[in-house]
Design a protein that fits this description.
185 residues, alpha/beta, six-stranded mixed beta sheet, two-stranded antiparallel sheet, 6 helices, binds guanosine-5'-diphosphate, binds magnesium ion
């Protein structure tokens, strides 16, 4: 039976979420206009932790990159939604988590200083909805990248959680991660 699955791609800023979705998507990435709620945010371009606000302080709207991509995988159509990596947009995670069939936690395996945040994101998402997920140890092409199994104790993952190697530049690698996830759904 064919399925339409909403998959959320989450992970710390710089983990490779946008790259992951861009590499595999059959359609172009979507950007939306968001109302700027305070001048402080609009005046910081790029914004805190790199989220770009392409706006002037007096402009009511700013463009926030919303990662959305689509992939047909066998009988399944995957709708991939990336999370914005900024605490300010926490409210969006609730929206993103609605009808989520599963999620990918993307970790920059070469950036140990982001592991604590990845662990926090994981607790946030598992608390939002109990759905299948996989962890992708990204940037395996970098010499300093931790091997997938190294992340298990660091992220406090149980033995049954799948931790897969990933390199977002390679389509086959991204596809493999999503294929493993859909098999759990
Ligand atoms: N070497 C390497 N760099 C990557 C990989 N995936 C993403 N990057 C780079 O990491 C940076 C952050 O990626 P991005 O997709 O913007 O991360 P996001 O903040 O999670 O959306 C960019 O410079 C990417 O080119 C990967 O698998 N290997
Ligand atoms: Mg991004």
């Amino acid at each position: 039976m064919s399925r339409s699955l909403k998959i959320v791609v989450t992970g710390p800023f710089g983990a490779g979420k946008s790259s992951f979705i861009r590499t595999i998507s059959e359609i172009a990435v979507v950007a939306t206009e968001r109302r700027v709620s305070d001048a402080t945010f609009a005046s910081t371009a790029p914004g805190p932790r790199g989220l770009r606000a392409y706006g002037q302080p007096d402009k009511p709207y700013t463009t926030v990159a919303m990662d959305y991509g689509r992939l047909t995988l066998g009988d399944d159509v995957l709708h991939l939604h990336g999370t914005p990596g900024q605490a300010r947009f926490d409210f969006m995670w609730d929206i993103l988590a609605r009808e989520m069939a599963g999620f990918v936690l993307l970790v920059d395996a070469a950036a140990p200083d982001t592991f604590a945040e990845a662990r926090d994101l994981l607790s946030t998402f598992t608390a939002l909805r109990r759905v299948p997920f996989v962890v992708a140890a990204n940037k395996q092409d970098l010499p300093g990248a931790a091997k997938p199994e190294k992340l298990r104790p660091v992220l406090g993952l149980p033995a049954e959680t799948l931790i897969l190697p990933c390199t977002t530049a390679r389509k086959t690698s991204v596809r493999q991660v999503l294929s493993q996830l859909t098999q759990l759904i």
